[in-house]
From TrEMBL:
The gene is similar to thrombospondin. Residues 238-281 form the Thrombospondin/cartilage oligomeric matrix protein coiled-coil domain. Residues 240-274 form a coiled coil. The keyword Cell membrane does not apply. This is CLUMA_CG001109, isoform A.
């Protein structure tokens, strides 16, 4: 009898220190979501400045007519989330272990997913706990003569209710974070396996030059080599000899024109000198 009294006193003490308040809007939403799988998530859970009490109440799902309450606590020191189940004045607890918890960092997101009698805990986009439970909240609600459910929560932290865990995680940009990590991992693996090393680059360049040489009959390097002059034939002997003769004739014609132009410039200068020195003019 004494143990029962102490247990009830402890329960009342905890209830009085919960600081949970009824959220009518969230309760209405929960009535719609609880008929099937659903997820409750909270964001930006900051560590307490005064760590006298390491246990902090997050939210409570209350079935008034069925006399069932499910209260979720965050226990940073023990690194777990605890569910206190009050069913017809009988209290027992279920612990969801979360090894990544500590007493100093802010939890960016905490999500509890319910699927039939299975429960999963996600902290900062990571699934840290998954197990089967002795209860099914959806069946408990649907089997009531007058279905009724209330949601009480800690007002300091934003709370959301979603149909699935994917929607809850996308709200905290978990997908973006995972993509960035995946990209960094891909680049790291590429570097470690040498996917972008100089040897492969040179091999690819050699294959391109080989295809070019097979198509045009000469190397790309010859086209950009500055040692090849325009007045020296670069055509290989495999080409038509008529084309070679025409090119040589064209070179000779250019040289003749250059010589003629030089002679004309000389004649113009002599004529200019005679005009300037003409006494009779």
């Amino acid at each position: 009898m004494r143990k029962i009294f102490m247990l009830l006193a402890f329960a009342l003490m905890i209830e009085s220190g919960l600081n949970l308040s009824l959220d009518p809007d969230a309760s209405t939403d929960l009535e719609q979501y609880i008929r099937d799988d659903f997820t409750i998530s909270l964001r930006h859970i900051r560590p307490r400045r005064k760590a006298k009490i390491s246990i902090e109440a997050l939210f409570m799902i209350d079935f008034p007519s069925a006399k069932n309450k499910f209260t979720f606590y965050l226990d940073r020191k023990a690194k777990r989330v605890t569910i206190d189940i009050n069913s017809n004045s009988q209290i027992f607890s279920k612990h969801l272990n979360a090894p990544s918890l500590n007493e100093t960092i802010t939890i960016r997101s905490l999500a509890v997913s319910f699927s039939e009698n299975k429960i999963a805990l996600f902290i900062d986009c990571k699934n840290v706990y998954k197990d089967e439970m002795e209860f099914n909240l959806s069946k408990l609600y649907l089997n009531m003569d007058e279905p009724d459910v209330k949601l009480l929560r800690e007002r300091k932290y934003p709370l959301f209710i979603d149909r699935n865990i994917e929607s809850a995680l996308s709200r905290t940009n978990c997908q973006k974070t995972s993509k960035q990590k995946g990209y960094r991992k891909m680049m790291k693996d590429s570097e470690s396996h040498g996917y972008y090393n100089d040897q492969d680059v040179n091999r690819k360049r050699g294959r391109r030059e080989h295809r070019y040489n097979n198509r045009y009959g000469h190397s790309q390097n010859q086209l950009i080599n500055p040692s090849y002059r325009g007045d020296i034939s670069v055509v290989s002997g495999d080409c038509d000899e008529n084309l070679l003769a025409k090119m040589n004739d064209l070179i000779a014609l250019v040289k003749k024109l250059e010589k003629d132009i030089a002679n004309q410039h000389g004649d113009v200068r002599r004529l200019q000198s005679l005009i300037e020195n003409c006494a009779g003019c």
